[in-house]
Amino acid sequence: MVTSFKKFITKREGDTSFLFWVYAFLLHTLENPISGFHPLLILAFSLLIWQRSEYLKFAFVLFYTMSILTELPKVANHSIIALFINIFLLVNTTHFFLKDKKMKVGFDHNQRGMVIVILSLVYFFAFFHKLNHAYLELNLSCATQIYQKLLTTPLGFFLPNNTSVYWFNIYGSLFLEGLFVFLFFIFPAVGILLGFIFHSFLSFGMLYDFGAIIFSLYFILSDHFEKGVVTTKIRWGRSFLYFSLIPLLFVNVFKFNLGFEHHTLTTIFFVLGSSFLLLPELKFKPVFYLKKLNFKFLHSVLIVLFVLNGLSPYLGLKTISNFSMFSNLRVEGKGSNHLLVNDELEITSYNDDIAWIISAEGPPEEWVFHKGIGIPFMELRRVVTELRLMEYPYLKISYLRGDKLFQFDNALGERSELPDLAFWQRKLLGWREVRRDGVEVCRW
Question: Beta strands of 256-373 (E only): which ranges?
């Protein structure tokens, strides 16, 4: 019976790099409570059984892309990475189908250049956005707050807790992310090892969904991917990754109280599984991938768009979903807290046009404006437009814009003062709330 089961599994074993990609989606989706029918979730679980179905893979990538596009502009930063990689996969699949009349979905050795560029850009913007006064201030820095959160986890029993460690954490994170920008072009094995340690620690602070996306890209640069053989270590790695989903399934799908911190169990299995997939047989020798970059026109377009997305806070286009998560960056209002860039790159005045909320009532909790906070006027218009499309009955609001006070019993009917945004504006532009005291707190 065991032999028959093993044969059943072996016959259906598919591309580990693509399965890692599917797993990253599952980890992100199951992190929050699930209610109702979720077709993309069913599609992802189906791929764990029928791993070699190219049509299932194509459907998954297509609908995964559509789901992210639907949720824009306020999506997690790792979802932006997923969006660009999915579009990259769709472009390659279409090109291969037109050329050979065959359906082939997934990663191959020729795509390593694109993966390295995406990884390096993610780390560059994560590093660059943190070059601001607030991130370098001990009591405000996101690095301090994330470390303090780690101290409350089981990992905290092994971590020191003093001011020197906090300072080391601030500058150490900057150094590592700056180093990663170049490391994957020359020493990918060193980048994988250091990145594995870095993101594994962060995963215990419930950042494992971001880590899963990053690790799935690491795998494409690993020796396991190079060999393309499903070894015993890979099977162990896959198994631990699947086990990591079980606590999330029980809590967020079946609504079963496990009676303990299920996120910790998920993180342990995630880190353990990733270690089997990424770390064995690492070859610490230089590999000059810069010489092997071979981009088609559409690949270059994707990279340009990726760069523009990362630069969007300084262009005055948005402050969310551009890898400024946990960076303390502030560009809204008068001036920026960045050490190198103020407003020299702005192509709009959206960052400076702030509506300071005096009172607001009516919208559901996820759309509410809190008293005393500021919000760029374009973001206010975006939310009002969305509420109109939802046919929400009313929004009573008063706010100060410049020196002028605005009061509306139902702002949804005030189309002259709050005109609708176009579809592309609602999807591409978005801002965080702004504090009046100018202090930039730690936010995603």
Answer: 354-361
